[in-house]
Every structure is written in structure tokens, then in C-alpha cells.
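Field reference: sequence -> structure
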Amino acid sequence: MKIIELKGQTALLTGLNNISVIVGRNGAGKSRFLRDIESTIGQAAEFHIRYVSPERAGSFKRDGNVMTNMSNDANWIRNTRSKNQVNDFKSTSAMLFRDAETNYLRRLEEDPSIRDDHSRTFRNDRLSKINRLLTNISLEKSLSDYEFRSLVDDAVISPDQISSGESEAVALAAEILYFFDTLDAKKMNVLLLDEPDVHLHPDLQARLGKLIIGMLDEFADQIDRVAVCISTHSTPLISSLADSDYVSIGTKSFGVETVELKPASTELRKAAPFFGHPLSLALSQDAPLILEGEDDERVWQQAARTSQGRIRIFPVLAGSVNQQGELETFCGDFLSTLYDDPVGFSLRDGDGVIDEPLEHQLPIRRFRLRCYAIENALLTDQCLAVMGKTWKDFVAAAAQWGRTNATHRDIASVQQLIASPNRLRHTKVKNIRQLICAILECGKPWEVVVGQAIGALTSEDLDNGNMLVEYLDPTMLRDVVFRDAG
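Structure field:
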């Protein structure tokens, strides 16, 4: 970091990192601390600083009055957000998101390294990041604006009809994306997020942390001029952020105006998945399911939601095969010290390995997918049915797509897939997983499709067998998905 401290009239934040987390009890003065910093250096020539207040009212839709206020007064946003309650916060976020789109497209036009990568689009790089925070709706671009659509029936939903948590998530994501897409290369860029966890479910809090880390990764070339400072009570958010080397943590106590930040420890990172959702086992008897990557995590989160409580697992993200092994050992020891009858699971990718089951490390029961990776399940009859199609439909649609996209970079992979006798069950298809949905004109993310298919499985499917059951491993499904059946 080029700057290692931020100083207000009385507040002092030292040991600044790219992500600086400030924790403390209610009444400790965290909000006042951040507002003091913002009001002191907010207009300093060497800083580009934005403050996001803790109470964020309104609806995520454009408002003419907000547009007028923003146009007439360059300090209008700063002045309104100096208070805890901001009535037009989300309307302002909607306006800023449109500005973020303009700035992103301008950057795409001016930067050949981005422009020449055809996978880089506003939809892929920005809109998809917001939609990864949502479960039942998606934010889509219409002819003149953005609109919310139901993932169930594709119906348009008014912004004031979506849940408070979804509304919060969209507004916060828009603010974060706008901040990064307006970075000033000549200044120190500081984003002050005051209790972003308010109104968010623990899963949403964790996903918000991953969004912030992902944006820092994208702007790694400017990393020494970016700082995101977050005050929070949220252990899921801290858990999500603690995986990153960008993160330092400090405590704000009542009457103490200096917060000294320290890098997140290895122990914190290992413990993070558990204290990040401390009531899950106690209240709903969820069991940890250790997974290798974020894709698997999103699939199983969707599966649990689709099952309406029947699948009682809490996905724990390892991040790599090596860390998955470490977490298996750590989870086993941890669970054994807390519970009389501990239970936990670990599910690894197949990675081309066939018929080599893993040995359990009780209380952790270890399984391996019977396909290359979780996205391969997208090609099973059950997942295709979620999209309203069959394998025959996909082959026909892919062939037609190939005739009109002969120069597409993934044409060879698609042709290999439709010619495969086993649908590339044990072959990597990661590069075409979303393309498969696009070819079938399915608007759902591939993770949602696979998760919904898993969540819809019944004990009859397990008894009679089907393609998805075989891809996932019947023994794993019996233990994890149907562990309370019978």
C-alpha cells in the first residue's frame, strides 16, 4: 500500500491494507470513526474517497429527482450520506450503476487487452457479479434500463417488491462496482463501507466478501492505490474476507480513536468457515460439506434451497485440493470436540479418476464425484430437463449453433461434446459450461440448473437410479442428501 494510515480529526486508522476490517461492539463508535475520516479527507486532492452509510433506504430504480440533485451538486451524495439514514440511497445506487456501465465500456474501448478478449463484456464482468449474490431473481438489461426478473417464471418484478436482503445486495454491489470502475490512477482510492452486512443473510454476507476480493484481483495493477475499509459485526463477512492476503483486521473500542490493523492469521482463515455460520448446526442440524471451489459451493447452496430444507448442509469452501485435505483434518478434530455424534462431509472432483473411492476420515465422510467436475452434471438428462430440453435437443441445437458460429473459439469443444459417446463425462468442460445453457437459450446460470436438479432428486430416484444419481455417486447422495430418509 502506498498509504499506511488514514487520519480524521480524531480518528486514526493505521496498518492500512487493501481490505481493512474494523470490528467492535454496538456503540463503540465505528460509524462515527469512518465518517470522521471521510469528512476530513473527502475533498483532499490526493484522495478519491467514497462513504457508504449503514442505513440504506429506498428502491433500486432510477429517480429523476436524484438525477437532478447529482447533476446540480457534486457534493450531494457526500452530504446526504453523512447521516445514518439515507432515504434515496438505493435510487442513487441505481444511477451510479448506469455510470459504472458507461465507465466500464469506455475502459473496454480504450484498453486493447480487454477489448481483444471477447469474453470480457459488461454482462460477464459486472452484471453476473450482481446476479451471483441473488438466488430467486436476476438483474437483466432491458431496452432502456435494468429490470428484475424471477428465476422461476421469468416475470418482471418491480424494484420495490424484491426482498430487503436482495435490494441491499444489489445496491451494495452497484456501489462497489462503481467505485472500482471510477478509480483515479493519480489518487489514493478509498471505499468506506459502514456495516454492509445490515439486512443480509449470512450467505449473502459471505458472497459480498468474495465480490470485493474479486474486484481487487481484477484491478491488481492498481492495487497499491486502493483501500476498502469495512466496519462490521458479521462473522460470515469476516470469514469470507479472511481467505485473502489483502485483509487486515482491527478492533474499535469505545473512547479509543486509534484502530491498529493486523494481517488476518492462518488460524483465522482455517476457523473462518465454522464461526462464520455459528448457529447452523445448533438450529438446523446442518452438517459441513467441504468443497473444492466456488462453483461447487454455489451449486450446493442452490440444491439446499431447492430442496426446501431437506438437504441440510453448509458448504465450506476449501479453494484447492490441498486445502481441502487440511480442512478435512481440521473439521474432524473441531467437530469431535464440540458434538457427541459429529457428522461432516467432503466432496471432491472426479478429475478423470474412475472407480477409486476415498477412505473416510471419521467423522468426515469423504466422497469423489463420478464425473470430471460438478459442471459435467449439467449434461445429464435431469439437468437438461430443468432447462426444458433433452440430449437430442441439445445435439440438434449445438449443431445449428456450430453452423452459424464456425469461427467461435469454443467450436471444437462443442463438436467434441456432441460426438462423444458418454457426453464427455470424465473430460473437462469448464470452458463451455455457460455456453451449453446459451445454446439451449436458457437464461439461468449453469450452477442454478445443476443445483435445482440435485435439489429435486427424490428417494425414488436413488432407489431406481438415473443419470444424475450416477454422476454424483449414489452412496454420497444416500449419506449427504438423504441422510435422514427412513
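Note: The longest strand covers residues 188-194.
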